[in-house]
Design brief:
The complex is a heterodimer. Chain A is built from no helices and eleven strands. By secondary structure, chain A is mostly beta strands. In chain A, strands 2, 4, 5, 9, 10 and 11 form a six-stranded mixed sheet that branches. In chain A, a hairpin with a 4-residue loop joins strand 7 and strand 8. Chain B is mainly β. Classes of the chains: A mainly beta, B mainly beta.
């Protein structure tokens, strides 16, 4: 079966750095997305990785290792507004998008 | 500005009733998707469309139907609402590339079936 694993919840302190991991077991791989979803709102696009390595975009970076079936989202200089759920989604060999359950990130002052 | 809207934002209905949730996008995107989101689950795909007159079943399509008569709209119909269909429903659209392109989501509809 297809499976995406993310921690259910994480807590971090304002101004700190946090890494949210995503591991996947899917039938093939054609890319990985990270989306941010604030409570009661729609998911919004953060990043897309298809090649191994780190993609940096301001305070947010996303890393991919295809051989390990692993990705992480790195958030630096955390702000209170970063409190949200972070969704990992993988494109499988049939070009279907498989979603993880998301990681709820709580930022404390 | 282009956008994607859903209506109603909140809906309470009774078991057995037919319910239609509207989704309208002004991005002129070919692809449109319907998902449901429940606690402890990722987004689950209900139906999707790659263009006018095209519709396809997702992983949780039983009890739901869609039709695509124009580019802008993909209404989702619950034929006979069941309590198990209480959920938050999101519509999304993307320009191309099937499921591989970035998806833009509507604000969601919270549906309660009593």
């Amino acid at each position: 079966g297809q499976n995406i694993d993310q921690p259910t919840e994480m807590t971090a302190t304002e101004g700190a750095i946090v890494q949210i991991n995503c591991t996947y077991q899917t039938s093939g791989f054609n890319g990985l997305f990270w989306y941010q979803q604030h409570a009661g709102e729609a998911p919004t696009f953060l990043s897309y990785n298809v090649l191994d390595g780190l993609e940096e975009k301001g305070r947010f970076s996303s890393f991919l290792s295809r051989s390990k079936g692993y990705s992480y989202l790195l958030l630096k200089e955390l702000q209170m507004k970063d409190s949200a759920s972070y969704l990992c989604a993988v494109i499988d060999s049939n070009y279907q998008l498989i979603w993880g359950a998301g990681t709820k990130l709580i930022i404390k002052p | 500005d282009a956008e994607i809207t859903q209506s109603p934002r909140h809906k309470i209905t009774e078991t057995g009733r037919q319910v239609t949730l509207a989704c309208h996008q002004t991005w002129n995107h070919n692809n449109m998707f319907w998902y449901r989101q429940d606690l402890g689950h990722g987004l689950r795909l209900i139906h999707y469309s790659y263009g006018v007159q095209d519709t396809n079943k997702g992983e949780v399509s039983d009890g739901y139907s869609v039709s695509r008569s124009n580019t802008e709209d993909l209404p989702l119909t619950l034929e006979s609402a069941a309590s198990s269909q209480t959920s938050v429903y999101f519509c999304a659209s993307s320009e191309g590339g099937g499921h591989t392109d970035t998806q833009y989501f509507g604000p969601g509809t919270r549906l309660t079936v009593l």
